Amino acid sequence: MQLQARMQVRPAGPRRAGPAPVRAMAGSRFADVAQAPPDPILGVSEAFKACTDPNKLNLGVGAYRDEQLKPVVLSVVKKAESKIFARNENKEYLTIEGLDGFRKATVDLLLGGDHPAIKEGRVAVVQSLSGTGSLRVGAAFIARFMKGSTVYLSNPTWGNHRNIFGDEGVEWKYYRYFDADTVGLDFKGMVEDLKAAPPGSVVVLHGCAHNPTGIDPTKEQWASIADLCKERDLMPFFDVAYQGFATGDLDKDAFAPRLFVEKGLEIMVSQSYSKNLGLYGERVGALVMVLNDKEAATRCLSQLKRLARALYSNPPTHGARIAAEVVNDKELFEEWKGEMRGMAGRIERVRGELQRALEKKYPSKDWSFITKQIGMFSFTGLTPVQVDNMTNKHAIFMTRDGRISLAGLNSAKVEYLADAIVDSVRNH
Ligand SMILES: Cc1ncc(COP(=O)(O)O)c(C=O)c1O
C-alpha cells in the first residue's frame, strides 16, 4: 500500500536529470506489517506485570524464585564475580568459539571430566547465547549441512523449538510424547513415530526434565530410543536446559546424552546455564557436537564458527567467566551442587504440598501425577478455558497449555493455588 502511494506521486513524463526531489511521506513504509502475537510464555509475564490484584501469582515463566517468590542470585555466582572483578580483566572480544575455560567446563558437565571423546578431540563446542542461541546455531548447522532433513519435536514441547527450527527454514514435525489418559509418556506412540521417520532425520530430545510435561523416559526407555536412533540412522539433538534441576544431581541428569555417546551415537547438544546457575539474563550456554571422528569435529567446529560469526560474531564474556569460575574451581563447584540441591529440593517440597492440598480438596480425582513429574514444571491437564478462569478469576498466570512453573510457587500460596485449580476443574 505504502509503496503504491509513493509510486503515484512520481511526476509523469520524461525523467529529469539529477536526483529525484525528496518528498515528505505520510505514515510509515512499514504500515502494513502485521502485529506479531505475544510470546506464549514471555507474554504471560507481561500480563502478570500489568495485573494489580494483590493475590496475583506468576507460574508462567520457568525461572527459579525463593520462598519469598523473589529472583535468586546464587551465592557461588556472587563469589565467582568477586574473583573476576578482582582480576580486573578487560572487555575485549572473545574468540568466535568463546572462552576456553568455559568450553572445557561445559563439556565436562555434559560428558563427565576425562571422557575419552574429550581426550580424543572428537568434541566440537561453541559458546553461544544460552540454550536458545545454541539451539539456533544448531538449527543453522542442520539447515546448511543436513539439507532436506526433517527435525522431529516432541508433542508437546517448549514452544520456542518450532520458531527456532522454522525460522531457519528447517522442516519440523511432531512425534507423539504425552499420553493424556495416563498423564505419562506415550512411549509406544513415540517409538512408532520415530520408526517412521526417514533415515537422516533429526530428533530433538529433552536431556532431562521435559518441558512442559515434566515426564522423562525411564533409563530402559532411553536405551531403546538410543538403539532406535542407531537402527534408523536418526541424529539425536539433546536440549539440555535443566541439568541439575530434575534430580538435583548434575551427573544423574546427564544420563541420557552420556548413554547415547556410550552407545557410539553422534549427538548434538544445546546446553544452558540459565536455570542451574541462575544466569538467565547473562545468556550463557553452548552448542556441542560429540562425533566419532576428530577431523570431522575440527571441520564442524570451523563451520559452527562460520555460522556464529554471521549470527552474532562472538559470545558475551561475563556469564561465561562466571560459569568457568564455578565449574573449574573445586570448592565453588561443590558449593554450587549444594545450592542446586536446595533449589531442586524447594520445588520438590511445594510439589508434594500442592498434591496433598488437591487430594484433600478434591479426593475423587487422582492427583498423583504431580509428584510423578519432575523438574520445574507440572503439566496440570487444565484446558485453555480452565486456564482462562485461573487467570481471569484468580489472577494466576500460566501458559494456556496448562503448564505451571512450580519454581514460582511457595508454601504460603499452595492453598490459594489448589482452590483455584479445584474451582477451574469443577466449574469449567
Ligand atoms: C526446553 C528448553 N530449552 C531451551 C530453553 C532456553 O532457555 P535459555 O535460552 O534461557 O537458555 C528453555 C527455557 O525455558 C527450555 O525450557
UniProtKB/TrEMBL annotation:
Entry cofactors: pyridoxal 5'-phosphate
One matching Pfam family: Aminotran_1_2
Gene3D superfamilies: Aspartate Aminotransferase, domain 1 (3.90.1150.10), Type I PLP-dependent aspartate aminotransferase-like (Major domain) (3.40.640.10)
Residue ranges of every copy of the Aminotransferase class I/classII large domain listed in the record: 55-421
Keyword Transferase: yes
Catalysed reactions, as listed in the record: L-aspartate + 2-oxoglutarate = oxaloacetate + L-glutamate
Gene Ontology biological-process entries: amino acid metabolic process
Enzyme type, top EC level: transferase
Record-linked CDD domains: AAT_like
Region (Disordered): 1-20
InterPro entries membership: Aminotransferase_I/II_large, Asp_trans, NHTrfase_class1_PyrdxlP-BS, PyrdxlP-dep_Trfase, PyrdxlP-dep_Trfase_major, PyrdxlP-dep_Trfase_small
Source domain of life: Eukaryota
Note: In eukaryotes there are cytoplasmic, mitochondrial and chloroplastic isozymes.
Subunit structure comment from the entry: Homodimer.
Family: Belongs to the class-I pyridoxal-phosphate-dependent aminotransferase family.
Protein name: Aspartate aminotransferase
Organism: Chlamydomonas incerta
